[in-house]
Amino acid sequence: MGGSLCNSSKSSGRDAEFVSGRTESGSVLLIKVEEGQIQWEPVFQIPHYRSSGPYSFDLEVKEISSLLLVGDRVVVSYVRNTYDRRPPLICFSLGTRQKVWHAGRVQSASKEDEQTFGNYRVTPARWKNLLISTFSYNESVHAFFLESGKWGWRVRLDTSYFQNWSSPVVKGDIAYVARVN
After folding, report:
1. What is the pLDDT of residue 181?
2. DSSP assignment of the chain, as one string?
């Protein structure tokens, strides 16, 4: 697994510049190929954080799933050691190499409707000012504001708990998500 992006504005002939998330530590790398030489440097590290549930333990990043380049920003989805109330989705600036936002815990009106998010093995789709995505162990498609990472809305797709969805695809004003059933 892991994602890579090529910055096509900096690619010519044999020279290229890539942003890669092919690490198991949560590091995002900038890889430069110049005159046949390969150079790489870390540009961002996904921080470990405490679980947001009733148990207190560290959630460790296991792998980066995808990278989505939006202007100067890179939206990173990742896999961690278990599910949590916070979605595994973070955004950083390539220019400053600083975190812009980390998707926060989704608040719900009732405890029966509390959302948890499993590992993120898909690529989010961009629709207007939103990121549309699905998560393992979650029955819904969710929307997050691109500017802030705040949760916007969800649509329930299935009531099965152990779901693994495909990456959503947006065409026009419709988001498509493939299902096994």
Report:
1. 60
2. ---EEE-GGG-BTTBEEEEE---SSSEEEEEEEETTEEEEEEEEEPPPEE-SSSS--EEPEEEEEEEEEETTEEEEEEEESS-BSS-SEEEEETTT--EEEEPPPPP-SSGGG---B----S-PEEETTEEEEE-TT--EEEEEETTT--EEEEEE----SS--PPPPEEETTEEE-----
Work out the angle at residue 67's Cα, subtended by the Cα atoms of residues 139 and 81, and round it to the nearest 5 degrees.
Answer: 55
Q: What pLDDT shows up at residue 1? A: 43
Give residue 163's pLDDT: 63
User: Within the chain, which residues score under 50 in pLDDT?
Assistant: 1, 6-9
- Name residue, tokens 């949560």: 26
What's the pLDDT at 76? 92
- Max CA separation in the chain (angstroms): 58
Residue 74's Cβ-side half-sphere holds a number of Cα atoms within 13 Å equal to: 32
* Non-local CB neighbours of 131 within 8 Å, separated by 6+ positions: 68, 75, 89, 124, 125, 143, 144, 145, 146
0.85 surpassed by pTM: no
- What are the distances in angstroms from CA 152 to CA 40, 53, 78, 90, 148? 36, 21, 20, 15, 10
